[in-house]
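So, read this over?
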Amino acid sequence: MAEEEQQECDCPPCEEGAPAWMATFADLSTLLMTFFVLLLSFANMDVVKFREMAGSVKDAFGTQVENPGSFEERSDTAVTIQLSEEENRTIDMMQMGEQIRKTVEEQDLENKTDIKVDDSGVILTVDGTFMFDGGSAELKPEFEKFLAEIAKIIEENDYPLAIEGHTDNIPIKSPIYPSNWELSSARATAVLRYLIDKYKVPAKRLMAVGYSDTRPLVPNDSPENRAKNRRVEFHFKKNPEK
C-alpha cells in the first residue's frame, strides 16, 4: 500500500489545456486553408485572354507540314474551340467596357462617369451637371467632345443602346418642362438626336427613356446625393431579346 502511494506521488503533474502539438497542427491547417483560398482566387479565367489563347492554339495545330525524305505529308485536322453565343456576347461586353474605360481615362473624366459590366450588358453613367445646365436639355460643348468618342464605340459595336435620363426629387415646373418626367425624357432624347444627326447612328439601334426620380442611385437626402442622381445612363444591351 505504501508502494502504491509512492508511485502515485512520483507521477508528473498533468498540464492544463490542449497539448502543444495540437496548437501547431491548428496553425498548419489554417495556413493550408489560406493557401488554397489564394489559389482559388487566382484561378478566375479571363475570357478575353481565353479567346486569344484559343486562336493561338488553332494557329499552332491547325495545319502541319512534314517532309520525311522525298514524301510530303499534310494534316488538315484543325483544333477549334467553340464558344456559345452567350459567351461571345459576354466577351464583347468586357471588351467594350474596357474600351469605354480607356476613353474615360484619356478624357480625364473618371470623376464624371462610372462604368459597370454585368449580366445585362455595359452601363456608362454620366454626371448630369457635366452634360446639361440646371433645368435644361441642351447639351454642353464639353460633353459633345466626349460624346464624339462614345459615338465611335457605338459604331464599332452592333448592340442596341438605351439612353436613360434621371433626375433628383426636386420638382420642376416650367413652360417647357412641367415636371421631371418631361425633363428626363428631353435630356435622353437630346443625346439620341445628337447621335443620329451628327454621327448617323442607325435610329433602330437607339431608344430614349426618361425615369424622372423613380430610380435614384442614392437617397435624395443631401445636395451631394441629389447631384449623383441627376445623370444620363448609356445602357448597351447584351441580350436585346430579353
In short: Residues 57-75 have pLDDT under 50 and may be disordered. The two ends are 90 Å apart (CA to CA). The longest strand covers residues 121-127.
